[in-house]
Amino acid sequence: MIIQDGQTHRSAPTQCQIIFDKLTYEEESIWLAIKDRRGEESAIIGDKIAEMTGVDYDRIRAVIRHLNIRHDLLIMSCGRGYFVPANPEEFRQATRRERHRAISILYKISRQQKTSVTEVFGQGVMEFQDECEDTLTPTLSP
User: Fold this and answer.
1) What average pLDDT does range 128-135 have in this prediction?
2) 3 state DSSP class of 3
3) In-domain check, residue 136
4) Is 31 part of a structural domain of the chain?
5) Of 11, 73, 102, 85, whose CA–CA distance to 43 is shortest?
6) Which H or E run includes 4?
7) In a domain, 135, yes or no
8) What DSSP string describes 50-107?
9) C-alpha distances in Å from residue 31, one per residue of 46, 119, 124, 134
10) C-alpha angle with apex 55: 135 to 32, nearest 5 degrees?
11) Is the overall model pTM greater than 0.85, yes or no?
């Protein structure tokens, strides 16, 4: 962990201390394809991970999501593929970009359903509650 400006950040080197017996073979092979891709400039595309691991690209996306949520691995994505942030600033930039994408999607859905973004978010929290019980908290503040 890195503590900077009073905030705690997961550091990429700490992730290498993962105990692989907690990962399935599929999870481990995908993590091994990504873990040394430090920094956005060295991102690896999903098709290359599929080629390296023999895992279907749609499944890779699901496994990466699982590795992020359940195993607390810091895997980010960008237009060039998947990577591990090289420093706290790159982490902030990547999370800002993902947050913007998520909010844009929620806004689009709320417009299509003719409801509020808050209601769409609340529905999403309920849908993912079992999967992410400790990572999603329906705390909404103005």
Assistant:
1) 60
2) strand
3) no
4) yes
5) 85
6) strand 2-4
7) no
8) HHHH---HHHHHHHHHHHHHHS----EEETTEEEB-SSHHHHHHHHHHHHHHHHHHHH
9) 12, 35, 27, 22
10) 65
11) no
